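Case 312 in the screening queue. Each case pairs one protein sequence with one candidate compound; here the compound is nicotinamide-adenine-dinucleotide. For every case the pipeline is the same: read the inputs, emit a complex structure as C-alpha cells, and attach any notable structural observations.

Predict complex for case 312.
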Amino acid sequence: MNHLAIIGAGNVGTAIAFTALNRGIARHLSLFDINRPRAIGEMLDLRDGLQFVRPATIEAGDQISVCADADVVVITAGAKQQPGETRLDLAGRNAGLLRSMLPGLTRVAPKAVLLIVTNPVDVLTQVAIDLTGRVDGTVLGSGTVLDSSRLRHLIALRFGIAERHIHAHVVGEHGDSETVLWSSANIGGAPLTADWTDGRGPIDEAGRAWLLHQVRNAAYEIIAGKGATSWAIALAAAQILDALDQTTQSSVLPVSGPIDPDLGLGDVCISLPRLVDANGAGPILPLIATDEELAAIRGSVAAVKATLDKIR
Ligand code: NAD
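Case 312 output:
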C-alpha cells in the first residue's frame, strides 16, 4: 500500500499506526486529528522508531489535506465509550462527526477505501455509505473481527489448542446484540458441538452462553480497567488492512457492510463472514446458521436500524 491515512490519533488510531508500521503495511502513513499537538507528538514519537521497521514516511496534522491521495483511510476519530455507556449511545455524536468530515475527505482522497472503526461501527458504516453513496464495498467497518478474535482466544484457552486452528465467527452488530455462529464453529474441522473423546468438548449450552457473555462484555471490562481498548483492535484493523492490500487472494473476515437483500435479514450494515480484498468488502459467504442464530442476527439488524432511525 502506498498511503495509509488514519483519522484520529487517540488510543486506537495510534495503536493502528504503530501496528501498521511494525507490519510494514504502507510506504507512507498519515495521521489527521483536530488535536494538532497530539497528532504531531505521535508522529514524532513514531518517526523516532523508523530505523527498526520497513522503510516508511510519516506525516501528521490538523488539516485533512494530510490524507490526500490515500489508498485506505481508517477512521478512528470521535468520542469513545465512557464506563457504563453502550456503543449505540455514541451514535449521534459520532455520526455528526462523519457528516462534517466526509465531504472534505472524499475531495482529497476520492479513491480511498474507507475503513470505519469508530463506534458504533455498524451504524457509522451505514451512515458513511449513505453519505458517500458508495455501496460497492469500498466503505466497510471493522465489525466483529475483534470480537471473533476474542472468542477464538477463549475457545483456545478452553481446549488448549492454538487460536489459528479455531474457526468461529461472531456476527451481527459489534455490540450487545452480537451472536456466534456456533453451528459452523469448528476446530480443525471438528464441530465444537461434537463429543471429544478426551472430554474437551462439546461446549454445552451453558458454556456457549458464558463464552458469548464474555465476548460481549470484554470491552466494558477493559475500559473499566484502562480507559480504552486499543491493542487488539489495532491488530484486528491490521489484519483487515492486509486483506485490503491483496489483489490475488481474498480473505474471509466478519467485517461490517451492507447485507445481501436475498438473505432476507434486513438492509443495514452488520457483520457476517465475507470476502475482503483490494476491492473492499465482497460477497458474504454461504450462511450456515440455525433458526436461533438467524433470529439473533435479525435482532442485531433491528438494533442497528433502531439507532439509525433515531439519527438519520
Ligand atoms: P480517543 O479519545 O483516544 O481518540 C479519539 C481521537 O479523535 C482524539 O485524539 C480526538 O482529538 C480525535 N477527534 C475527535 N474529533 C475529531 C475530528 N472531527 N477530526 C479528527 N479527529 C478528531 O478515543 P479512542 O480510544 O482512540 O477510540 C476512538 C473510537 O474507536 C471510539 O469511537 C471507540 O469507541 C472506537 N473503538 C472501536 C473499536 C471497534 O472494534 N470498532 C474498538 C475500540 C475502540
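Case 312 observations:
- Residues 205-226 form the longest helix (22 residues).
- The chain has a mean pLDDT of 95.
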